[in-house]
Design goal:
about 725 residues, Rossmann fold, about 20% strand, alpha/beta
Length: about 725
Amino acid sequence: MTNTSKKFLIYITLLLINFAVSFAQDDVNLFNYWKYYSDAENALYKTESGLVLDQLNKREKEIQKIQNLEEWQGRQAVVKEKLLKIIGPFPPKTPLNAKITGKIKRPDFRVEKIMFESIPGFYITGAIFIPKKRKGKVPAILFTSGHTENSFRYKPFQQIIINLVKKGFVVLAIDPVGQGERSQYFDPATGKSPYNSVAEHCYFGNQCFLSGYSPAKYFIWDGIRAIDYLVSRKEVDPKRIGITGHSGGGTQTSYIAAIDNRILAAVPECFITDLKYLIKSNGPQDAEQNLSGFTQAGLNHADFIEVRAPKPTLILSVTRDFFSIQGARETYAETKEIYKAYGKDDYIQMSESDTIHGTPLKNREARYAFFQKFLELPGDPKDHQVQFFSEQELWVTETGQLATSFEGKTVFDLNKDVATKQLSEIKISRNNESTHLNEVRVNAKMLSGFKYLETFGTSIFSGRYINPDYELEKYLIPGSGNYYLPAVLYKPAENNKKKLIILFSDKGKEWIANDSPLAHSLVKQGYSVLLFDLPGTGELGPGYMHGYDAYFPVWYTGILAGTSISGLWAEDILRAVHFAKSQIPGNQIIGISDGNTSTGLLLASVFSTEISQIIMIKPLIGYEQILTNRFYKEKLIPSSIAGALNSFDLPDLYALLAPRKALLVNPVNGTNKPVTKKEIDTSLSFVHKIYTETNVQNQFNTITDLEISEIANQILTWLK
């Protein structure tokens, strides 16, 4: 080796050593030591679901107190009122404008392919199956499809529909929104939607929840209008109407039968259970299967059946379903009590099969026999092999999609109209600033589920590292549920500014400590810094429900309970503030958040003035940007507050920070992209107005287009 080569090798080695020393990793993990808390990653879901379970336990005690029919009837009235309130007001009934787009004839029945409008411009596609041999008006059944992309054209569903029509029933099968010919996001270029049916329901459903209602409202209304169409047919006896559906169709069946009194007999399949078992297994399912504040209102699946008693209901279940069979059995046992009180014991029935989620033979034949008995059309209850239609044969539109055949409305369009009205009302309310902001604070607390802290518990000291420039101490801070917040406290060795910064990110404290320059830059300038993980982040995530990103189980659980992830975060942030003040008394507290956790910091700062300055990196600028974008970014949803648009948008919360100093760094819009100047001027005009009227117009600032490497320096400059 030459001398030049040796010198180069030594130079490179020294460089690498220097690099390693400069970027030494801090040990900020705690649960690798505290093995007892190995379940900490599930803290978020278990805390949210614990609220649901408490609410369900309270309901169970209330049910146990019911002694007679009069008390059951009193509960029925209360439940019906609650359901109607939770679902939200239905639109007015308008002309269906029904049209038949095609007919198919079979030897013993015919099919009419139909289309009608449940709301003006909101088209429903479906098919009505009419038996050839009829004596006068005959009973009719509405078939609601489960989560299949092709809806009622799915062969197992055709098996049920065609058997029913061959037994003499008129059957109307409709496409649920987001399925069949009603894809809400159909892309003509690819010939499909970018989402499957479950994902479509959740995607538009999240926007509905922000406006304060479940997307179930549209599924239910479609069913009600489908019944309107059925009873308008000359072939149908309006006094003998049934409804049935599997899985997601079982959900629709349960909802519609609970609301529409014209339905005599209902047969939900593979849906009815007890929510306490669903919570403990797979968690809440997709958007329309969750009603806002459902368990908070003291309701459970049994209420869908009990509210319509003593009308006939058959529960169809399978023993290896993700809808717990134990829950189905317990619900059946409870509902039997109200039917017994009515003297109609045999009007509530249950059939179960030992198989997985599906439509097994035993349950199909139980369904046929049940409808034959209670819709008074006796006959052969056996399931027979049938000749299936191809999917294209049952297309109602020429292209097989409304999106490419008609310029109709989508759920996004309908909800955008709702949101636009809500935003207009918020702007009007802002004219009376003092009253508006007081109401915003009250409503934000209620909707987020935030509770003011009464006790704080005792933190656990977990070790100290001494470095030349700082000390690092590790702690477990008691959280708002049955968990601890893992935290590390950096204390600068010199130049202490008597200011303590609480700092957290949706990427976790490990990322802040070792992959971001911010924490060390602050410590180097003399700030004490407390890093900690919030539930669903860092060491407190992702858990078996995959943390806050998995809004199916976690965000929807909060919606059932009437709480939110951000509300829980706000409580824990204030717990961290209390801890920080106890460790280093007399320090001014500054809050810095990164990403989705910014909503938690925002709420904590609205509900407490202990945080004197607020810095939010990549916060969402407003819910309006989610609600007005057909294609928003889903990662913004879990930290959002369901129902917020009934009272406020995020700029109203920003305004409540006045007169404190606040900085938004690289705020994002509904697509999680940097906001434009126009978006800032439009969205934050009310915030600037409040700060100006408080004579602190320079205290609220927005910085955009910063590179990651520039953020630390800009924050340090702003803090001076």
